[in-house]
Specification:
Elements lengths: L2 H15 L4 H13 L4 E6 L6 H9 L6 E2 L8 E5 L4 E6 L2 E6 L1 E3 L5 E3 L9 E8 L7 E5 L23 H6 L45 E6 L4 H10 L12 E5 L12 H13 L2 H4 L4 E4 L2 H9 L2 H11 L3 H7 L3 H5 L4 H24 L5 H12 L1 H11 L4 H19 L6 H12 L2 H14 L6 H10 L7 H5 L7 H21 L3 H21 L1
Parallel strand pairs: 1-9, 1-10, 2-7, 3-8, 10-11, 11-12
Antiparallel strand pairs: 3-9, 4-5, 4-8, 6-7
């Protein structure tokens, strides 16, 4: 039985215990339906960190921010849809659908907004996009800040808006209330994108982050305020205390080193250094550098933009370098209009890099676009999200469900829920899939140091190449149990020995997790 099935079984049992308790039933139903949804990935961070730019880079086109006039700081969910449309959710009123109009300053404005809309709680934006078929993106309002070491958690240790909101009402439980976003009468089904069962059941975390399964925390420099905000994301107990759901994105990588062509290289070096800091490692899975705007330009580069870059690259080097010294020099030519537009999209550092890439072999719009995407850091971010989040969707969604149930059980503690609390503690104690995620992140970032051959095997056994038994053991998919068993026994023996001889504490803990992965295979086969 996998993590989703175990969590679903416990939620079903909780529904029987809380039958007749309207709010608790709605809370449980909402989180039961979330288990069958795509992964929910939130993007958050402080003001002007570039959250919407990161969303756009992931989508491959300029969609965010989606703005409702008169309703700032509203969470916006992005879903795959047949055509662009926004569903506006208002407190105490049914959702309203409206087209989205491109805004002059970028992003989109919900058509007709600004009138008597009432109190807007959230927006669900449908947008035709392949990237949204397996992930739902949530563009959250700017994050709060806190002094490092000081959490805004409640007295019980849960994040803000936790268990108390279950019974006292408050904000809606998520982007679509009950069945709205998980299936049934949801987006694309008769009753619009939500409303109903989940209303009035507050989410966990701050700013709506508790309604996500994973989080990209976007920051410029990862300062003290950012570390305080990350502590809020990790406030909790049990599975909620493991930071397996957070990746930090340093989103202004092209601004490092004064915008030089090698700025992105410097930003990646900073990210590698920060991810190994003990304090940072305790708050997230990884730290990555990204030039979100460069990534977006790379994915949507126009022919006239390539022509502008190529024309500069074709100039004698001294002349081109002189023009690239400042924005005034770059735009002070006869082709100023095209250059101004390019600067608005790429910035001077991005233009310098693009010129260098054309000089060194990017001889077409397609080639330059691909190089910009790779240099921007987007390819690495996509791979990390895939390995640590999307590929481990079941573990992360089960984690969300267990955290939600833990809040409810602690809010309604007493004899009727005692067996639920005991079973929850048992599941949390056995949440091995989440410990595997920490090992995978440690191997990726270098926080876990193992000999090269062992590191490759550890990643595979921990599920980094797939979670089926054969994939973990490096055998063909059709391998029968009589081949799987001896391979698992051999692997268990090697990693048992590694728990004894590992030279560091982190290496020993990683070996213990990998050994547990081996014994889990043997338990299942036996």
């Amino acid at each position: 039985m996998g993590p989703i099935e175990r969590a679903a079984r416990l939620l079903d049992e909780a529904e029987r215990v809380f039958r007749g308790h309207e709010r608790a039933e709605a809370w449980l139903r909402h989180h039961r339906e979330r288990l069958s949804e795509p992964l929910r990935l939130a993007v958050t961070g402080p003001p002007r960190a570039g959250k919407s730019s990161v969303v756009n880079a992931l989508l491959g086109e300029e969609v965010a921010p989606v703005v409702v006039a008169g309703a700032p700081d509203v969470p916006v969910w992005f879903h795959d849809g047949r055509q662009p449309v926004a569903w506006v959710f208002r407190t105490g009123a049914p959702p309203w659908s409206a087209p989205m109009e491109r805004a002059a300053e970028g992003g989109h404005l919900v058509a007709g907004s600004g009138g008597d809309w009432g109190e807007v709680s959230r927006v669900v934006a449908e947008w035709p996009c392949r990237a949204l078929r397996h992930v739902r993106l949530l563009d959250l309002p700017a994050s709060p800040t806190a002094a490092p070491g000081r959490s805004l958690a409640g007295a019980d240790g849960s994040p803000m808006s936790g268990a108390g909101a279950v019974l006292s009402g408050g904000a809606d439980a998520g982007p679509g209330g009950g069945a709205g976003l998980g299936g049934g009468a949801g987006l694309g089904g008769g009753a619009g994108p939500g409303g109903g069962a989940g209303a009035g059941l507050g989410g966990g975390g701050w700013g709506g982050a508790g309604e996500a399964d994973a989080v990209l925390y976007v920051a410029r420099h990862l300062g003290e305020g950012d570390l305080g905000a990350l502590e809020l994301l990790g406030a909790g107990r049990g599975v909620g205390a493991l930071p397996v759901h957070v990746i930090v994105v340093l989103s202004r990588a092209d601004e490092t080193a004064g915008g030089r062509a090698d700025a992105l290289l410097g930003a990646r070096q900073i990210a590698r250094r920060r991810r190994k800091e003990a304090r940072v490692a305790a708050l997230c899975q990884d730290v990555l550098a990204l030039s979100a705007q460069m990534a977006l330009v790379g994915r949507s580069l126009r022919e006239e933009e390539y022509a502008t870059v190529a024309a500069v690259a074709a100039l004698p080097r001294e002349e081109a370098d002189a023009q690239l010294l400042s924005t005034d020099r770059f735009t002070g030519s006869a082709s100023a209009a095209g250059r101004v537009a390019l600067l608005r999209r790429l910035g001077l550092g991005g233009v310098r890099l693009a010129v260098t890439l054309v000089r060194t072999g990017a001889r077409s719009r397609t080639a330059l676009g691909a190089q910009l995407v790779r240099q921007s850091g987007l390819t690495e971010l996509q791979a990390t999200v895939s390995d640590l989040f999307t590929a481990r969707r079941e573990a992360l969604k089960a984690r969300s469900a267990l955290i939600a149930l833990d809040r409810l059980v602690r809010a309604e503690s007493g004899p009727p829920t005692a067996h639920l609390a005991a079973e929850l503690d048992r599941l949390v104690g056995g949440a091995h899939e989440l410990r595997e995620l920490r090992v995978l992140a440690g191997l990726r970032t270098g926080r876990v140091a193992l000999p090269a051959e062992l590191a490759v095997e550890a990643r595979r056994l921990a599920g980094g190449a797939g979670t089926a038994h054969a994939e973990r053991l490096g055998l063909p998919a059709e391998a029968p149990p009589e081949e799987l068993w001896p391979a698992a026994v051999d692997a268990a023996g090697r990693w048992h020995e590694q728990t004894r001889v590992a030279g560091t504490a982190t290496g020993r803990r990683a070996a213990e997790v990998v050994l547990r992965s081996c014994t889990a295979i043997l338990d299942d086969l036996g």
